[in-house]
Amino acid sequence: HRTKKSLFKLSILLTGDHPTVEFALKPLQEALNRIPVLDYRTTVHTDQGFQYQHRHWQNTLKEHHVFQSMSRKATCLDNAAMESFFHIMKVEVMDEHFETKTALIEAMNEWIDFYNHRRIKTKLDGKSPVKYRELTVQKAA
User: Which residue ranges does the record assign to the Integrase catalytic domain (predicted)?
Assistant: First the structure.
């Protein structure tokens, strides 16, 4: 199961069964549509998955003047935010036994909703990722 995470708001954007270029491009396009043109460099960091090396992904970043950063091969600390998320999810969800793939996916989706909307994070001033994003957007407006 593949997952996309926004480090700005520390919330999960999208999940899916298979890593594809289209799967990777959807949240990227959504994020690019929300990000204003800034005076400083915008960076997107990923692992070395094939979809992030694909010309469509790279061309989309170039068209929006976004810098691409990739983690080094076999260096999980470069992608620590996602590694941490998966550890938390495995501890809180994956230790259970699920009879079907559908039951597992349903449990994961429920947990991701909890993670995004109700699970508070110390680094977000004790707010959930979605609440923190809402407050940040209000301050910027």
Answer: 1-137
Q: Which helix (H) or strand (E) holds 115?
A: helix 101-117
Number of domains in the chain: 1
Q: φ, ψ for residue 2 (rounded to 5)? A: -95, 150
Q: pTM of the full predicted structure? A: 0.64
Looking at the DSSP assignment, which residues form a beta bridge with residue 16?
Answer: 2
pLDDT digits (tens, 9 = 90+) for 70-94: 888 877 777 787 788 888 888 888 7
Which CATH number belongs to the domain containing residue 120 in this structure? 3.30.420.10
For residue 73, give both structure tokens: 């091969």
CA within 13 Å, CB half, 35: 21
Contact yes or no for 25/57 (Cβ under 8 A): yes
Contacts of 53 (CB under 8 A, 6+ apart): none
pLDDT value at position 71? 83
